[in-house]
Amino acid sequence: MRIGWSGLKETKKEGKVTDKQQKNGIIYLVGSGPGHPGLITKLGYDLLNTSDAVVYDDLIPIELVVALPESIKRYYVGKRAGHHSKPQNETNDLLCDLAGKGLTVVRLKGGDPMVFGRVAEEAAYLKEKGIPHQIIPGITSASAAAADAGFSLTDRRNASWVMLATGREAKSASAPVPWEDVGKLDGGTIVVYMGVKDMERIVKSLLEGGMSPDKPIAVIQNASTGIHQTVRAPLSKIVARCQDANVVAPALIFIGDVTGQDEFSLPPKDMPLSGKSVLVTRPAEQMQGMCDLLRDCGATPVPYPTITLTHASDEGGWIGFEHTIDDGGWCVFTSEAGVRHFFHELLVRGFDHRALGRFKISAVGHGTSSALKERGFVADLIPERATVKCLSETLVEKGNLRDTSVIRVRGNLADSSIEDLSAKAGANVVALNVYRNTNAQWEQNWIDKICSSPPDYLSFTSGSTVDRFVEILGIERAKEVASKSRLATIGPPTSAFAEKLGLKVDVEATTFTVPGLVDALCEDVLR
Ligand code: SAH
Description:
By secondary structure, the protein is of the alpha/beta class. The chain has four domains: 5-139, 3-Layer(aba) Sandwich (Cobalt-precorrin-4 Transmethylase, domain 1), CATH 3.40.1010; 143-260, Tetrapyrrole methylase, C-terminal domain (Methyltransferase, Cobalt-precorrin-4 Transmethylase, Domain 2), CATH 3.30.950; 277-306 and 440-526, Rossmann fold (3-Layer(aba) Sandwich); 311-437, Rossmann fold (3-Layer(aba) Sandwich), CATH 3.40.50.10090. The chain contains 21 helices and 20 strands. The strands form four sheets. It has a five-stranded parallel β-sheet, with helices on both faces. A five-stranded mixed β-sheet has the order 6-7-10-8-9, sandwiched between helices. The protein is elongated and about 90 Å long. Mean pLDDT is 90; it is low at 6-22. The structure holds S-adenosyl-L-homocysteine (SAH). S-adenosyl-L-homocysteine (SAH) binds next to helix 7, strand 8 and strand 10. S-adenosyl-L-homocysteine (SAH) binds at residues 34-35, 59, 110-112, 115-117, 140-141, 145, 193-194, 220-224, 249-252.
């Protein structure tokens, strides 16, 4: 049974789900692409973002999952510490269970699910159970790796065929790859997936089969990420060269004359953060911008949010706001999240932007004022320094607050200095809570990865991100990770928070914004 994708999305959007779909659900087996989150197809991305649940493996760009709306349930079925992936039957049962609840599920797989992605086994199982499913192909890592290294798999001057092989056939139930016979082939390109650990055995068989020891080889690790590396050597020397370069999975082995070329690879851009990995702990909904900025500077973001922002329903605050609409006053925003949740709720409550017509607007800094500008509001007051303290002092100094209403748009953990100082200056203060900070959960494998190979930088954009990071790892492990990385904060209040918890701050932004923090990292690398 095939279901038109756009048709299904329409029924979902309009909430008109038929009985049949309700009973069955549907599974989309989607290729995530090989590493860069932009390399998923548009169709795959749209399905992911409109699904009810996502079931994902290792080797998918985790940013795609992390950035999903909270309402989409996530199920990780990749490797646990020291263990192999969840047994296939457990994954099958999970898919069956979710589909049985009538859900639209995306089964997200690395690269192209059709290439060493076990999609056939999952699809056969779904077919047997009568569960509607559809395969959405993706970009396989071989294509991305060849693009990184600058050769074409089928450059007609050197290759008239391509062979995709697994290097792990010896350890699986698959038929053996006849490596010695492959060694007799010429005039094509051989790509070996999952072959790094067994490279010595494969190379030996190829040589025994008669392949020239001078045959050009390229081994490409972490394709389409900021930390990709390519090792090139003739067949007889490639194992030693890879050992020297410490090549580990995920990597692909390319065998063939095409790999000797890099005619069309662009010269590496001058990227200040090339080769650096940066832990990004900010809330998922605010993560994207920072990850994009980091990637633009050559870094590899490690997007593990420590907190989640959810909508708050502050009945009293909104009644207070309603009473001030006719006379206006000041409306004060201290975060992009505050802007986003305020305007969302404003419209939900049946107001429109004219409700702010009589208000002057204050924004703590660049990020907040940009978020306001996107909604058609230019801030009347932005303090010299982007801190809540500086904003409250400037507001008191310049805002003529006596008998004026001050609407303080805030999250549940915000500091109350604006309320306190404004009230002292004679203002009628309405604290309006529009969002809540809650703890984000980390997968066990995220904790394992951070502890076993700490990123070059740990970045924090608020005290609560530091607090939660320490809570997730425990103070001893947090200190250990921090001692092997460089800890960077968005500004003094966040640094003070980290130091209070016993963590040493290595880098502090001088402009207290996300771009300011990324600039500070770039400067730190140059030191
Ligand atoms: N379906 C995936 C392959 C899964 S098998 C695809 O189409 O790419 C897993 C193997 O793929 C890894 O062991 C490695 O050989 C390769 N691989 C996956 N992602 C990679 C990456 N970013 N860089 C290099 N090799 C990668």
